[in-house]
Write a structure and sequence with these properties.
The protein has 13 helices and 16 strands. The chain has 332 residues and is of the alpha+beta class.
């Protein structure tokens, strides 16, 4: 089945090349519901790390699969690179590449929240009651935040969310979506399910079952963006076993691990997924932000073959966005 999305920059409909789609479709097929052990094994840390080695670190395997052909097919812009393209001699180096984001991903002039990644995004509200509640298919907020964190569950109850799906060819650094201080920072253990659309629509709440790192920012601090608290949840996926916190205020210089009380600046590099596809979820408090008009309109656009639309029983189309581009503005 085809999966299409909207390119934000042009408004054009584009077709997604789903890497390993047949294998993922088979693994998450309803026919295998009685073989739970297989799904459990495939989403384990061991299998994820083994697949990551075979796909991203094995030079012989890299040559056999035609890495250069992959770079061309995936449309990676070599002009954006912050380093010599010749140094990208393994798939891992391609996926963990650094770009000149200060040149090719400028911050918007308008004050607001920016996209934390090069990704495909859907947005919504956890208070939705019309039609099928999207939040119950993608994630349960309480489980996503770790279950025991009752304070944060209450804080973001009936708020807004944005889900960013990073496909394998994407730039895999995440950036800070809003200026604020780190009020909380913790990891939640879980598995390593794929973030392929098939896995998302067939597995109940996959984002809240995968291993993830939660950062809660207070943006109402002095000098902050002023949109209340923002939760940044970085979620691992199949072949992504590690999320490294690498906060840098100037380009990629002097990266720092995160800790409570740190002031983070909007648009700065925050973390690196190592390697492959993955997901970032942003949660906002109620009535603090309004998502960009084009993202809301694209999501309801008809004539686009989205794998999300059929199982949800309503039009639900992703928009391909660039990191540091406008996501939302403050509610006045």
């Amino acid at each position: 089945m085809r999966h299409q999305y909207i390119v934000r920059k042009t408004g054009a409909i584009a077709e997604e090349w789903l890497v390993g789609d047949r294998a993922v479709s088979a693994l998450y097929s309803p026919k295998l519901e009685n073989a739970a052990w297989l799904s459990k094994a495939a989403s384990s840390r061991y299998v994820s790390e083994l697949l990551a080695y075979l796909n991203y670190d094995n030079l012989l395997f890299s040559r056999a699969t035609g890495m250069q052909r992959f770079v061309r097919k995936s449309g990676i812009n070599l002009r954006e690179l912050a380093e010599d393209p010749a140094a990208l001699d393994t798939p891992r180096k391609v996926f963990e590449r650094k770009i000149q984001y200060w040149e090719f991903r400028p911050l918007p002039n308008e004050r607001g929240v920016v996209c934390p990644a090069d990704a495909r995004v859907v947005v919504g509200s956890t208070s939705q009651v019309k039609g099928l509640p999207i939040k119950e298919k993608f994630f349960e907020v309480e489980e996503l935040l770790g279950g025991a964190c009752v304070r944060w569950t209450r804080q973001f109850e009936n708020g807004d969310y944005a889900i960013f799906r990073l496909t394998p060819e994407k730039y895999h650094y995440t950036h800070v979506p809003a200026t604020g201080t780190v009020e909380d920072f913790y990891a939640v253990e879980g598995r390593f399910h794929s973030c392929n659309p098939n896995a998302t629509v067939r597995l109940l709440t996959p984002h809240s079952k995968n291993r993830r790192v939660v950062t809660v920012l207070d943006t109402n601090c002095a000098g902050g963006t002023g949109v209340g608290r923002v939760a940044i949840i970085e979620v691992v996926a199949l072949m992504v076993g590690q999320i490294e916190q690498r906060y840098s205020e100037h380009k990629y210089d002097d990266p720092l691990p995160l800790s409570k009380g740190m002031m983070l600046q909007i648009g700065s590099p925050k973390a690196l997924f190592r390697p492959g596809s993955s997901t970032v979820v942003l949660l906002f408090e109620p009535e603090r932000i309004r998502f960009a008009k084009d993202l809301r309109q694209n999501q309801q656009r008809t004539g686009v073959h989205s794998r999300y639309s059929i199982p949800f029983g309503q039009v639900l189309v992703e928009t391909d966005v660039m990191v540091r581009s406008l996501l939302a503005t403050p509610v006045k």
